[in-house]
Amino acid sequence: MRTQTVPAIRASKVRGGSDPLVMVTAYDAPGARQAHAAGVDLILVGDTLAMVVLGYDDTLQVSVDDIAHHTGAVARGLASSPSENPRPLVVGDLPWLSYHTTVDDAVRNAATLIRAGAQTVKLEGGRKRLSMIEAIVDAEIPVMGHLGLTPQSVHAVGGFKVQARQHDAALELVRDAKALAAAGCFAIVLEAIPDEVARMVTDSVDVPTIGIGAGGDCDGQVLVYHDLLGIEERMRPRFVRRYAELGSASVAALTAFAADVRAGRFPADDETYHLSAEVAETLNLYGAKADTAE
Ligand code: KIV
């Protein structure tokens, strides 16, 4: 099967003539197969797992083992996917505290996600994370950066807020992006920043920028699976476009199931296994419906 590669992604600059990159999050095998069938370029097993799957209020609650567990499910989903599309690159998100203590820890935790089935890892932060990024890249693990709103800093920055709105903060962000690219990041996520700043960053670096709430001039876009499919109800940032309403569709389906069970409409005869006529006869079930179980 053809597969997306890090060098191909790294070379995907819109100003160089490439199509914008498409990344979505996925956390399990069905989600991964759907993303593959849809032809996305990258799947991020994001630490948003904590919020959209596990029910926490922020992303700080998941561990490396949690991300590895879900990365394995995504990798198995892709391995059994029938789609002819190129296999998306799997990015395992390094969770909070998995790369904040020592460089050794950072490399080992990145390796755990690779062994679980990711081809690359993502981590949040700018120049203060350079030593970790360099060590992980040095261990032959491709790293995606993440600047702007970095949800693992939610308490430090006082909430999920748009970043780099002021002159100095915008210039700092451009400096961070250049430093990440120089340290070897193959792509950089830009989250919740003004589009003018995202454009400055995108123009300043030779690696692709992938925006989420960063306007239309990035080299790609990412959305969270549960947001774009209308499954996540609690938060709805302005940058989310819902392409479906699967949350309400699921409730409607479950309500119909409950009503059918209570009214005796489920299961129907063709949803039911039956004995063959001979066996029904031997059991003295004269008149029982005879069929062969499949
Ligand atoms: O964890 C995640 O889903 C992310 C995206 C929001 C980029 O980091």
Can you tell me about this structure?
Strand 6 (187-191), helix 9 and strand 7 form a beta-alpha-beta unit. This protein has 12 helices and 8 strands. It has an 8-stranded parallel beta barrel with strand order 1-2-3-4-5-6-7-8, surrounded by 6 helices. By secondary structure, the protein is of the alpha/beta class. The longest helix is centred in the middle third of the chain and has 17 residues, at 167-183. The protein is 40% helix and 12% strand. Bound molecules: 3-methyl-2-oxobutanoic acid.
> pLDDT average, as an integer?
96
Report the sheet-strand fraction. 5-15%
Say what oligomer this is: single chain
The dominant shape is elongated
**Helix proportion:** 25-40%
Distance between the termini: 34 Å
In which order are the strands of the major sheet placed? 1-2-3-4-5-6-7-8
Query: Can you count the beta strands?
Result: 8
List the helices and strands and how they pair.
Elements: H1 6-10, E1 21-25, H2 29-38, E2 42-45, H3 49-53, H4 64-79, E3 89-93, H5 103-116, E4 120-122, H6 130-138, E5 143-148, H7 154-157, H8 167-183, E6 187-191, H9 195-204, E7 209-212, E8 220-223, H10 225-228, H11 246-262, H12 277-282
Parallel strand pairs: 1-2, 1-8, 2-3, 3-4, 4-5, 5-6, 6-7, 7-8
Helix pairs in contact: 2-4, 4-5, 5-6, 8-9
3-methyl-2-oxobutanoic acid binds next to strand 6.
Key features of this structure:
alpha/beta; 12 helices; binds 3-methyl-2-oxobutanoic acid; eight-stranded parallel barrel; 294 residues
